[in-house]
Amino acid sequence: xxxxxxxxxxxxxxxxxxxxxxxxxxxxxxxxxxxxxxxxxxxxxxxxxxxxxxxxxxxxxxxxxxxxxxxxxxxxxxxxxxxxxxxxxxxxxxxxxxxxxxxxxxxxxxxxxxxxxxxxxxxxxxxxxxxxxxxxxxxxxxxxxxxxxxxxxxxxxxxxxxxxxxxxxxxxxxxxxxxxxxxxxxxxxxxxxxxxxxxxxxxxxxxxxxxxxxxxxxxxxxxxxxxxxxxxxxxxxxxxxxxx
Length: 244
Description:
It holds the Pfam family Tetraspanin. Its main location: membrane. With 244 residues, this protein is an all-alpha fold. It has one domain (6-242). It has nine helices and no strands. It has helices at residues 6-38, 40-45, 48-51, 57-87, 90-116, 118-138, 142-155, 165-168, 192-243.
């Protein structure tokens, strides 16, 4: 059996520990992605009646799916890395380093793209929500009106920008705009466009923290896997020359 030096054994242990951390963060991504998909607020904000008519709605909705896929892939890749370190397999280690590097670049690019489009998403969601709102009450489409009222109830908001939007469409402010749906109670001050986007942005630091930590660990993972693979190669050649 191949016996490695103390330094190489430490690198092997570090790689195993890093991959265990990858597995944990992979499950964290998976869990947060599932949360976005099953969250009532996320479901209401991107209901079929609303997201289909709002530019950027599909882009926001797919975030949860991407996180779930990334989480599953991270867990599987981490198990692959653990096997490479445990069995001292150079092929596993090199493949692991290459795939991990590609994954790291894609994660960074995706996060930068998401953060750079924050203003565009906010503006497109607000303008798109107004079109839905205006169309719903002008045409008296009950399914759209129900979706708007669901938004107001879930996010405790009123109209697109505020309750004055109802005056623009010649409609009485509904009970969904009032606390506890009682007309005697105050009207929600915040518009639904701001309420929804603010909620989404409040979730981004969590995503950013998870992704940033994973990328940092992935850098050490790539270095450790390559270093271990090279060390195993040197020891393999050393044993071969010793026998000759």
